[in-house]
Amino acid sequence: MTRHQVSGKPTILITGAAGRIGSLLRRTLPHDPALKEHFKGSFALKVTDILDPGPGNKEDEVFVGTLADPAFVASMFVDGSVRAVIHLAGYPREADWDVLLDANIRSSINIWEAARKFKVERVLYASSNHAIGFYPRSRTIDSTMPQRPDSRYGLTKVFGEELGFLYAYKFGIRSFSMRIGMFLPEPTTHRGLSTWLSHPDMVALAKVGLTADYTCEIVYGVSDNSRSFWDNSAAQRLGYHPQDSADAYAHLFPASDLAQDDAAEHFQGGPYINDGLTSSPAFRAELDKD
Ligand SMILES: NC(=O)c1ccc[n+]([C@@H]2O[C@H](COP(=O)([O-])OP(=O)(O)OC[C@H]3O[C@@H](n4cnc5c(N)ncnc54)[C@H](O)[C@@H]3O)[C@@H](O)[C@H]2O)c1
Description:
By secondary structure, the protein is α/β, with parallel strands linked by helices. The chain has one domain (about 1-290): Rossmann fold, CATH 3.40.50. It is built from eleven helices and ten strands. It has helices at about 20-30, 35-40, 70-75, 95-115, 150-170, 190-195, 200-210, 235, 265, 270-275, 280-285; strands spanning about 1-5, 10-15, 45-50, 60-65, 80-85, 120-130, 175-180, 180-185, 195, 215-220. The strands form two sheets. An eight-stranded mixed β-sheet has the order 1-4-3-2-5-6-7-10, with helices on both faces. The chain has a two-stranded parallel ribbon with strand order 8-9. Strand 6, helix 5 and strand 7 form a beta-alpha-beta unit. The longest helix is centred in the middle third of the chain and has 21 residues, at about 95-115. Bound molecules: nicotinamide-adenine-dinucleotide (NAD). Nicotinamide-adenine-dinucleotide binds near residues 21 and 128. Nicotinamide-adenine-dinucleotide binds next to helix 1, helix 4, strand 6 and strand 8. Belongs to the NAD(P)-dependent epimerase/dehydratase family. Keywords: NAD, Oxidoreductase, Plasmid. This is NAD-dependent epimerase/dehydratase domain-containing protein. One of its GO terms (molecular function) is oxidoreductase activity.
């Protein structure tokens, strides 16, 4: 299903627009003066999801369908107006390969292929902290460290980051992978004191991705939490200055419910680590070494 409102303006395409992050960005980005200036006066949104994202702004073009279908994806780009994609659509947690292949792998391939064919300037990608979940919490890692996926889901996010790399350096499409921590109105767990990303900070990070000068960046989608596992200097250099901090909620979660030697407590990926875990603890200890 497609509802067209052709405006002739440059457009930003938001995928996963019926979802939590997509609906926030859809609501907020059109009113941002800095973005209007960046797009030399005005821009429009195209929004897509496998579920109907609802009417939203009057001018939005809405496309309902699966991104696993390349013809459907191409139909959103064919008018040549798409300048930037914010690619959020996907299955957002651990699942069987059958689910992840369509939602996270085929969909991402189709988005980047369309971006190449229709000369899109940049793709912002919703990666995840589960792309690096197998780092111990005792290490503060930046965006240059090799990925360490903690799940099939995390591995699909590694794949998306690497699609961004290939299409940036091979085809000149700017790539901005956001390793999102825990996007919620407020932290709800002890681990969230490290990984929380507030709604305003999500918007701020997307604005950096839409306007900054870069070729291929991996950044952390995290607020200004003093307990963060991540060195987010790459995002800061590009102009990301988070306004919120999980520190304000620290009194609500004074300690984890888990023992220190529980793998979910030891590694950054938290509960994703224990999901299906059968390897020996001795083997996992290798991951603590620098
Ligand atoms: N929310 C978080 O804390 C968090 C953390 C890390 C990464 N992320 C990533 O950010 C993105 C958005 O997260 P969210 O919390 O808004 O998730 P969400 O589940 O609320 O939204 C994802 C949207 O993608 C759509 N979708 C799924 N498969 C699709 C397909 N084949 N074609 C078209 N649309 C499809 C869904 O219908 C859904 O509306 C996801 O890719 C997720 O993996 C989120």
